[in-house]
Amino acid sequence: MSQNYHKLCQRFNRLFQLSHAMTFLGWDQAVMMPAGGNQPRANALAELASLRHELLTASDVGEWLDQAARESLSANEQASLREMHRRWRRSSCLPAELIHAKTLAGAKCEHAWRQQRLDNDWNGFLGNFREVVKLSREEAQLRQAASGGECDTPYDALLDLYCRGDSNQFIGQCFDRLKAELPALVQRIIEHQRSRETIQITGTFDVSQQQVLNNKLAAMLGFDFNTGRLDVSTHPFSTGVRGDQRICTRYRDDEFAQSLLATAHETGHASYESGLPEQWNGLPIGESHNMCIHESQSLLFEKQIFLSKAFNQHFTALMHEKLPQTQIWSSEALWRCYTVVEPGYIRVEADEVTYPMHVILRYEIESALINCEMEAEDIPDAWNDKMQSYLGVDTRGNYKDGCMQDIHWTDGSFGYFPSYTIGALNSVQFFHTIKQQNPDWQDRFARGDIQFVRDWLQQHIWQHGCFMEVQDMIQAATGQKTNPEFFLQHIRNRYLNEQY
Amino acid sequence: MSQNYHKLCQRFNRLFQLSHAMTFLGWDQAVMMPAGGNQPRANALAELASLRHELLTASDVGEWLDQAARESLSANEQASLREMHRRWRRSSCLPAELIHAKTLAGAKCEHAWRQQRLDNDWNGFLGNFREVVKLSREEAQLRQAASGGECDTPYDALLDLYCRGDSNQFIGQCFDRLKAELPALVQRIIEHQRSRETIQITGTFDVSQQQVLNNKLAAMLGFDFNTGRLDVSTHPFSTGVRGDQRICTRYRDDEFAQSLLATAHETGHASYESGLPEQWNGLPIGESHNMCIHESQSLLFEKQIFLSKAFNQHFTALMHEKLPQTQIWSSEALWRCYTVVEPGYIRVEADEVTYPMHVILRYEIESALINCEMEAEDIPDAWNDKMQSYLGVDTRGNYKDGCMQDIHWTDGSFGYFPSYTIGALNSVQFFHTIKQQNPDWQDRFARGDIQFVRDWLQQHIWQHGCFMEVQDMIQAATGQKTNPEFFLQHIRNRYLNEQY
Ligand SMILES: [Zn+2]
Ligand SMILES: [Zn+2]
């Protein structure tokens, strides 16, 4: 009898249902809630988070985990127990005082940052940020100590939260390859694009018509409106549970591409969650894998499907119908417009080619910071040097468009940034395999058929949840571990050779 | 030190935040959720309900309650402790097996009823319903036994859940007065209304314009869109927390009165919740009082404000602007149309005058049923006799528009019906006092000013939460306990004399 394992399943199901509540309360907060709900909602979410933490770290859970390890379990149950143990360790290894202190320091720093960023006030920010760094270093060291040798450095222990299975060393190797190739590639692409004509999108585009178009796009990409909604929020995001996915995009009336790219992106995230294994519902093993996988799914939908010439050709016909003003632009002209490469200050506005350099810069700084090889006051100089050398951009004195632009560090979310670019590498590698197995992919895209992509992802990624370690899953799906060469080749093909 | 009392406050705050989650998950389910969310949402709500029940009935709570009773507490804290004790007793006095059995039997009966009602299948319904009655009787007897002499009959113990403080005997006395007067009054009113001309509302009324009009109405009645939303649902309802009230109405395109009446009604419910005492936030004493008070607030907004001639005159001007087709009808013509009295089969479609007879009939049947003075199979005959004698309506053989029309009994929610009519009596009694204190009320209503009504309710009802026993609060506010004479006089004034 696997009595203790079953007690764990019951407890994790309870945690799952608390998370369900927090998921939809969070969605409501971002999409529906009137301003007066801020304080009561914050109180409710804080209490539910405490309750969830208590239920996960209660002493009975530790005992059940110990005893379940000696029970006779199937291979699936063993993998399930492994994931339960990881969730428990992550939550149990920090003293309550540190969690509390970091939450307070993070909230204070983030809150002040919203104004300090506008004021370009680095020194003001630094005053709060030093405490966030100090507490994050403590956190990282404690997490490393609790990892049982799994984490080589303190920074590895923070990566473990978002990129679990991809070590600092492995990520560093991938990024070194990109650093060696991308800066020169960017220059060649800019040179190449100078020789072609690129339209400027101008005009006023009816938002309700854009909404119709975005709904159609989501549906074309396989989003099922019986099991989800598409709404509007300040920042696009995706959340929900299997059976009820909520995605959000945002609209501008002076252009239409941003909303479409966001809808494609969030449809990728939602599709992954929808495809997770039903038999492990409510258990950690049934959850989505690390953020490097999650982001690979969204980027695959956004960059590999939506931005492909073939799909864009199909979609442009629909756009010409729903937004008649766009009929003056051919699908080829729009594609060129969507794929302009231009180094800039801001990560979230960066194109597919320069984006990794923004991430690598942040990765190099935050890993040094957490591993005590750099101090918070050294960030602006490091930022300027790297921006200059990676992208030829001068950010001296411009903190607000430089090292103060992102929210991630303000509350101590170190270790997240690499997932954007490892996700990009994974997405290209997955799509490379899909193309090899479907030589007629362009014909299918040109007809609006992307179901074969979903089928492949369902089989090789979605249905596995957290059953495998991440690089084992990638190896099983593509024949090798995450390899940056696929991404570099994709960049050359799309941006120098203007293939797909 | 009131250490145990403070532990109770912490626990009840945790319960309050779990209820916050269930409140907004419930709103989302009714208003936003796609069909695919049904199963995961039902699972989440069931688990949160179990968790809440466990946290409320845990043995530590019983000990804290015992020990807090010996602590030195302020008058407020003593009242607060009294309400905590009631919540705890209500949840602790039933064995888990009975709760579980009743939940299952109720869900089964309600589910089957949805089809059986359409099929007019009384015998099919009776098969499931007998079990619901049996378990509800057990529940009532156990609750009565646990009441420490507070409840005279088993039915009193179910009334305690919805009408706490208003006993079976007290309600029976009120209803006897109504029974003695209303049937003859109804006949006189019908006679009177036969002599006047009444318009028929016909046409097609743009729903988006109706939405604008309903938003305006809610705002005129004091609904604050910074602390709430007005949406659409299958059945109008109101929910939320202070700072974030969610009300819903529903629209038809062949008439406009239904949506407006529902919006006024739900604004009353929401206003009450918004006005609850902030200093007792999260504690039982800070919650709304029984359903006889809650319904009195909604009915006051719907029947006393919105349906008054003076307010209707003001509002019709706005309606003429937003729905230009309605300009052919004067406010007087519309008022007559809104106040037509006509006995019918269906409670939820009944007018203000005949509605109490629908409730009294149900009260007489359900109290006899729970007190074992009647059996389930006797219901149709009792129903027919009473409908014939109270309203002159023949329901023989017509179960679907007779005893099978309501959802309440299907899952064993006995004891709820009286609150509709006691609420109506209270609303008229409150408004009578408001009118006495504001002789210029009609002039104010005619200008759209209803703030003085809100101020009175805030002072005499809303701010008190559950601090006082219900009839003490009514006595303090109006000089006497719930008294049906105010309602009867209101009916004569409005429907025979066509005053206000
Ligand atoms: Zn993403
Ligand atoms: Zn109501």
TrEMBL record, chains A, B:
It comes from Gynuella sunshinyii YC6258. Coiled coil: none annotated. Zn(2+) binds at H265, H269, E295. Its EC number is 3.4.17.19. Binds 1 zinc ion per subunit. InterPro entries: Peptidase_M32_Taq (IPR001333). Gene3D superfamilies: 1.10.1370.30. The keyword DNA-binding does not apply. GO terms for biological process: proteolysis. This is Metal-dependent carboxypeptidase.
